[in-house]
Design a protein that fits this description.
Helices cover 43% and strands 20% of the residues. With 239 residues, it is an alpha/beta fold. Helix 3 packs parallel to helix 4 and helix 6 runs parallel beside helix 7. Bound molecules: S-adenosylmethionine.
Length: 239
């Protein structure tokens, strides 16, 4: 059976419908988040529901009974953050777990904070499980390493500037405990570039190719693979 373009498209639609949007723990708030985000002027560049579910499952796999701790670089409207938070608390809103998510754009950060609040994960709420840090990933991460300490996190998710992934990953390698997961979106491509494009055609393509080739060897300190769903998600376990 070959992957024709039509079958690839149908596969994406199937995965999104069945593993993305169906079933627990999707609620109306999560389902409507990106529509509200677009209405508020945020770009439609969140992960798909299918990738959201992957993030939730991975977060649940590395979280202990008291809940896990994760860091995300690139909040946008909070869509991937809510999926992650559900996994960190094993799908239950108030069962521990902490997500610290970094966003450079104040309008995006404010929108996401309101969504987290409405979902019961707000900084002021009783659950208090998601905190948005405003700033550039490469500027915020060194302070986080100091604040949280080495080996303090179960999962780090990268989804901001593609040319900065290698820099984010250096900090993630310190933040993660052995066995923790580094997860990165767009490790095959995005709307206007693909990793197999000729070298020099697009700086994100070149940077992601370098990131992929680095993390693919255990010399990186990770045992990694790349899932070819949608735009490619690297999943790497810290050695
Ligand atoms: C692809 S979107 C993130 C999507 C989000 N993870 C989701 O799936 O719902 C990238 C986000 O990174 C933010 N961003 C851009 N440059 C950044 C930087 N240097 N540090 C942190 N965030 C940045 C953008 O404003 C945008 O909101």
């Amino acid at each position: 059976m070959h992957m024709t373009p039509e079958r690839w498209e149908n596969t994406s639609l199937y995965l999104d419908a069945v593993f993305g949007s169906l079933g627990e723990p999707i609620d109306e708030q999560l389902a409507g988040l990106m529509d509200r985000a677009e209405a508020a002027g945020l770009p439609p560049i969140a992960v798909s529901a299918e990738v959201g579910r992957l993030l939730m499952v991975l977060a649940a796999m590395v979280s202990g009974p008291g809940g896990g701790r994760a860091v995300e670089v690139g909040t946008l409207g909070g869509y991937s953050g809510l999926w992650l938070a559900r996994g960190l608390g094993e799908g239950v809103l108030d069962e521990g777990g902490r997500l610290l998510t970094i966003e450079a754009e104040p309008h995006h950060a404010a929108f996401a904070r309101a969504e987290f609040e409405a979902a019961g994960f707000g900084e002021g709420g009783s659950a208090g499980r998601i905190e948005v840090r405003e700033g550039e990933g490469l500027a915020v991460l060194p302070g986080l390493v100091e604040e949280l300490g080495p080996g303090s996190c179960d999962l780090v998710f990268l989804d901001a500037i593609k040319t900065e992934y290698r820099g984010y990953a250096e900090h993630a390698a310190v933040l993660l405990r052995p066995g923790g997961l580094l997860v990165a979106d767009n490790c095959l491509g995005s709307s206007d570039w693909w990793v197999t494009d000729a070298a020099g055609e697009h700086e994100s393509s070149d940077a992601i190719d370098a990131f992929d080739r680095g993390i693919a060897t255990t010399a990186s300190g990770f045992l990694a693979c790349c899932l070819a769903n949608r735009q490619g998600v690297v999943v790497a376990r810290k050695l």
